[in-house]
Specification:
3 strands, 4 helices
Length: 108
């Protein structure tokens, strides 16, 4: 709409008035919790609102390849448990990088 009005102004044509149409709002407020208002009538909360929030955010991912990866990751995260292997590095996150960057003697 803005671009149409800019072009119309440059060409000396009449401008169109902008009318905002609010379809609602979805908000994730924690793990599997959310709130949503759709079309100013339908109100959702907790898990259904959270899923709707996830769906909306996933659809907004730029490319189909990334979108599929995000949805697959979300589905796997909802089915599988969290990995505990990476928790060891929380205390010393640079440890593996420092160890990999340190030259070891005896290597060829």
């Amino acid at each position: 709409m803005l671009a149409d009005n800019v072009i119309a102004a440059l060409r000396g044509r009449p401008l169109k008035e902008y009318q905002h149409k609010n379809l609602g709002a979805v908000v994730g407020i924690g793990l599997r919790k959310g709130v949503a208002i759709l079309f100013n009538r339908i109100k959702l909360k907790d898990r259904p609102a959270w899923w709707l929030h996830r769906l909306y955010r996933g659809i907004r991912v730029p490319t189909l390849n990334r979108r599929i990866r995000v949805f697959v990751d979300w589905i796997l995260a909802s089915v599988l448990k969290r990995e505990s292997v990476g928790l060891i590095e929380l205390e010393h996150p640079r440890g593996p990088f420092t160890e990999a960057a340190t030259p070891s003697h005896g290597r060829t």
